[in-house]
Design a protein that fits this description.
The chain is an alpha+beta fold. It is built from six helices and 14 strands. The chain has two domains: 75 residues, 2-Layer Sandwich (Phosphorylase Kinase, domain 1); 136 residues, ATP-grasp fold, B domain (D-amino Acid Aminotransferase, Chain A, domain 1, 2-Layer Sandwich), CATH 3.30.470.20. A hairpin with a 5-residue loop joins strand 12 and strand 13. It binds thymidine-5'-diphosphate (TYD). The site of thymidine-5'-diphosphate has 14 residues, from strand 9, helix 2, strand 12 and strand 14. It comes from Meiothermus luteus.
């Protein structure tokens, strides 16, 4: 079937009816703006199942998402949206780009969750952008940005709890939002070990894409372990 779009980790196909599209999760992994590429066996299935579980969890707690249902091991059906061209990053501890940019060690607890935005633009290398500039460029309206901030912080609280109950600490993550035809904002894209940093609470082990970025080994195993803990579903999940 004709693709609507192919990204680094997912392919979007037309859906069975108007207003919905099919997302296929690939095993392809990229890092450092696509300079490092490889396949992580089973990653597509893991990310599809984790994203589906998290979208369901968030929806049940009042966060609107694009998720409709799982279609197969590697595919989900989602509402078709217009993606807001911002990467919304929430940080609970210092890590990654933030640590490098400001010269601070990884793992420092931030006094409160920190929101950061990048302008989604491959040609420019997804530069950091501040809210006023995003509004001035017409990437997002003032009202939308307020709503994005509110939703991102709410998602952070919910996901931190969710992973803490599974012995994983949510260090940071990236969200994307989409506009429905009626203008409403929903959480879109994916939420998976590709887009989060998760540290095992007892051992401090990295359980996310940093194992790939930094050649730490055990990449497939870490993704499978996160899926196992997600599916384990404690009573209060
Ligand atoms: P960040 O530290 O900004 O960048 P990097 O991971 O390249 O060092 O990443 C913060 C979190 O957001 C991290 O969990 C990875 C995720 N993220 C993405 O999923 N996609 C992206 O394009 C970026 C920049 C970050």
């Amino acid at each position: 079937m004709d693709k609507l779009y192919e990204g680094k980790a997912k392919i979007i196909y037309p859906g069975p009816e108007e207003g919905v599209v099919r997302v296929y999760f690939k095993d392809d992994a990229t890092a450092f703006n696509g300079q490092k590429r490889a396949q992580i066996a089973g990653k597509g299935a893991v990310n599809n199942r984790i994203s589906a579980a998290l979208f369901r969890y968030l929806e049940a707690r009042g966060v609107p998402t694009h998720f409709v249902r799982e279609l197969s091991e590697r595919e989900m059906l989602v509402k078709q949206v217009q993606i807001v061209p911002l990467e919304v990053i929430v940080r609970n501890r210092t890590a990654g780009t933030f640590s490098r940019r400001y010269g601070v060690e990884e793992g420092r607890v931030l006094p409160e969750p920190l929101l950061e935005f990048s302008y989604k633009n491959d040609a420019l290398g997804d530069p950091l952008i501040y809210g006023e500039a995003a509004i001035a460029l017409g990437l997002v309206t003032d009202e939308e940005l307020s709503r994005i901030r509110e939703l991102a912080l709410r998602v952070n609280g919910l996901l931190r709890d969710y992973f803490a109950r599974r012995g994983l600490e949510l260090v940071d993550f990236k969200l994307e939002f989409g506009r429905l035809p009626d203008g409403g904002l929903v959480l879109a894209d994916e939420i998976s070990p590709d887009t989060m940093r998760l540290w095992e609470m007892k051992t401090g082990e990295k359980m996310d894409k940093d194992r790939f970025r930094r050649d730490l080994g055990g990449v497939e195993e870490a993704y499978q372990e996160v899926l196992r803990r997600v599916l384990e579903a404690p009573a209060s999940a």
